[in-house]
Design the sequence.
């Protein structure tokens, strides 16, 4: 197999992103990403037992426990939530914690906006999670 042999699974044009289950051209990869973000912000995505509630900006576990994303503005605040859930080890196992980290990463873009290179930034959570707007750049 040579590079660019695969066709985009969405439009049929030559795919630049190959090797995975869903070969894509750059344009369709961008559409996939935008659609995924729209689904995330609409609360249609699940990360293990966690899902996002757009009406109150929380990540909610199937058991009802919720993480308030408006209190995830800094690295320390995000880490505090992770440690909080991890510390409830009678209730939540490693998978619960791992899925929460994945959810926080996808919702907030941890390295891109919060902690990249070990530098702490502050996120405007309501602006970031507003469905109609593009995600703002880091501060
Ligand atoms: Zn395509």
Sequence:
């Amino acid at each position: 197999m040579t590079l660019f042999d695969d066709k985009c699974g969405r439009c049929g044009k030559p795919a630049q992103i190959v090797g995975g289950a869903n070969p894509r051209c750059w344009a369709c990869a961008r559409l996939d990403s935008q659609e995924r973000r729209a689904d995330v912000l609409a609360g249609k995505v699940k990360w293990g037992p966690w899902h996002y509630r757009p009406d109150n900006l929380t990540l909610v576990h199937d058991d009802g426990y919720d993480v308030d994303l408006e209190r995830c503005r800094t690295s320390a605040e995000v880490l505090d939530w992770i440690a909080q859930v991890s510390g409830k080890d009678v209730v939540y196992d490693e998978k619960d914690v791992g899925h929460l980290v994945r959810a926080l990463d996808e919702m907030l873009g941890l390295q891109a906006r919060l902690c990249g290179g070990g530098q702490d930034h502050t996120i405007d959570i309501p602006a970031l999670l507003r469905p109609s707007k593009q995600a703002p750049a880091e501060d």
Observations:
- The helical segments are 26-41, 75-87, 94-108, 110-115, 125-128.
